[in-house]
């Protein structure tokens, strides 16, 4: 019996690979000889690098870069071979790196992400997969451009300081010193949201508050990013601000799409392709997936629904084991999830649930396996049942 296990990570608890292993143990408790294939997954945000490296056997490399506040830090990226690199922007400019009291949404910069791209270019990369999500920045990728050699100048010809707010003073963009290797590099941008750069659904309005932006900050940042888009459109002759996904990661993808060869793809789809999910599903009888919290937001490009779409093509049932079931989670059934179960069976403190997550996953996976195994033994119709 072939079982595919393709979960996302449980944030602040277990990586996707650790979640998969715990579920695998639960399945083997019931079916010791099960043919189990673990495919750690992600949606392009935090945890994507770990999932891709676990599934592909890629090399983890580290670099000294600047975090969103301009402080030195060590950030990981992945070398997948054949000229391909995987960069998770949150590794350098992630929100989780910055304590709540130190978050600076007006000044936060994506410069460190540009430094990681330079590292990949130095290693010989000409294909760069860039996972967006979990950013502490709201600078529309301006810092990334600066790290790669672009000069963002005010009306007096002075370099702009870091951060999204400074873009309100942008007058011109000079690319004379832009890294020439970027001309031959292709970017694939992994996103899990479709927000535009500006406006009521834009980067500042939707994601700014979680990065510490006040209502006044949001208005100022949105205006600054709109001005940045105006200058970029004047420089390039095209305007990308309203394309889906431009608001992801503080607008980081906007800069990449505006100046480099890049295409946006759903994060789950891209990670699934790198991880070989579709091939793993061949001849599978069941699929397990999961994430930290399942609710209505899961429908917006999150891992479990993405996995379910692949499984649905082969008519394979999908069971989701999640940390918590939130409001509107029932909608995932229409998207291909067969059944969803919470990790814990009763009230429990979050810290305790996180610390014991592996054990709970093993228990729930065993319970689900027993139920699904029993289902395969049920008679096909009442006529087949003994009198």
Descriptive labels:
387 residues, alpha/beta, Glycerate kinase, domain 2, 6-stranded mixed β-sheet, 5-stranded parallel β-sheet, 13 helices
Overview of the structural elements:
By secondary structure, the chain is an alpha/beta fold. The protein folds into two domains: 132 residues, Rossmann fold (3-Layer(aba) Sandwich), CATH 3.40.50; 221 residues, Glycerate kinase, domain 2 (Alpha-Beta Complex). Helix content is 34%, strand content 18%. It has 13 helices and 15 strands. The strands form four sheets. It has a six-stranded mixed β-sheet with strand order 3-4-5-6-9-10, sandwiched between helices. Strands 2-1-11-13-15 form a five-stranded parallel β-sheet, with helices on both faces. Helix 1 crosses helix 13. The protein is elongated and about 75 Å long. The two termini are 31 Å apart. The relative contact order is 0.15.
Query: Which whole number gives the mean pLDDT?
Result: 92
What is the CA–CA distance across the termini? Answer: 31 Å
Shape: elongated
N-to-C SSE string, H for helix and E for strand: EHEHEEEHHEHEEEHHHEHHEEHEEEHH
For the report, how would you describe the main beta sheet?
6 strands, mixed
Total tally of structural domains: 2
CATH class of the largest domain: Alpha Beta
* CATH architectural grouping of the largest domain: Alpha-Beta Complex
What name does the CATH topology of the largest domain carry?
Glycerate kinase, domain 2
The poorly predicted ranges are 380-385
Number of strands: 15
Helix content: 25-40%
Give the amount of beta strand, in percent: 15-25%
Q: Quickly count the helices.
A: 13
Strands ordered across the widest β-sheet:
3-4-5-6-9-10
**Class by alpha and beta content:** alpha/beta
User: What is the rounded Rg?
Assistant: 22 Å
CATH superfamily of the largest domain: Glycerate kinase, domain 2
């Amino acid at each position: 019996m072939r079982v595919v296990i393709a979960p996302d990570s449980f944030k602040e608890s277990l990586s996707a690979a650790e979640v998969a292993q715990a579920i695998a143990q639960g399945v083997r408790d019931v079916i010791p000889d099960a043919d189990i294939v673990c495919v750690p997954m992600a949606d392009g945000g935090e945890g994507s690098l770990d999932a891709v490296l676990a599934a592909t056997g890629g090399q983890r490399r580290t670099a000294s870069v600047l975090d969103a506040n301009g402080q030195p830090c060590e950030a990981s990226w992945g070398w997948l071979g054949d000229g391909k690199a995987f960069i998770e922007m949150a590794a350098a400019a992630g929100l989780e790196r910055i304590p709540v009291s130190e978050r600076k949404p007006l000044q936060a910069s994506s410069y460190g992400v540009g430094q990681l791209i330079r590292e990949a270019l130095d290693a010989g990369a000409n294909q760069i997969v860039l996972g967006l999500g979990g950013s502490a920045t709201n600078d529309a990728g301006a810092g990334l451009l600066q790290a790669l050699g672009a000069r963002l100048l005010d009306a007096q010809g002075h370099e702009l300081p870091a951060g999204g707010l400074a873009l309100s003073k942008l007058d011109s963009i000079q690319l004379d010193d832009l890294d020439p290797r970027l001309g031959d590099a292709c970017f694939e941008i992994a996103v899990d949201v479709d927000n535009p750069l500006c406006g009521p659904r834009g980067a500042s309005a939707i994601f700014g508050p979680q990065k510490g932006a006040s209502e006044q900050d949001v208005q100022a940042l949105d205006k600054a990013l709109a001005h940045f888009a105006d200058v970029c459109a004047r420089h390039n002759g095209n305007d990308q601000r309203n394309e889906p996904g431009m608001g992801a990661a503080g607008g980081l993808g906007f800069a990449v799409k505006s100046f480099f060869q890049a295409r946006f793809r759903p994060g789950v789809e891209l990670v699934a392709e790198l991880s070989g999910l579709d091939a793993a599903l061949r001849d599978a009888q069941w699929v397990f997936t999961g994430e930290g919290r399942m609710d209505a937001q899961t429908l917006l490009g999150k891992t479990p629904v993405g996995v379910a779409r692949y499984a649905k093509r082969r008519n394979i049932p999908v069971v989701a084991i999640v940390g918590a079931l939130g409001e509107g989670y029932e909608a995932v059934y229409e998207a291909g999830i067969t059944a969803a179960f919470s990790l814990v069976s009763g009230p429990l403190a979050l810290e305790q649930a996180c610390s014991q997550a592996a054990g709970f996953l093993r228990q729930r996976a065993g319970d689900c396996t027993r139920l699904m195994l029993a289902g395969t033994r049920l008679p096909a119709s009442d006529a087949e049942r003994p009198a």
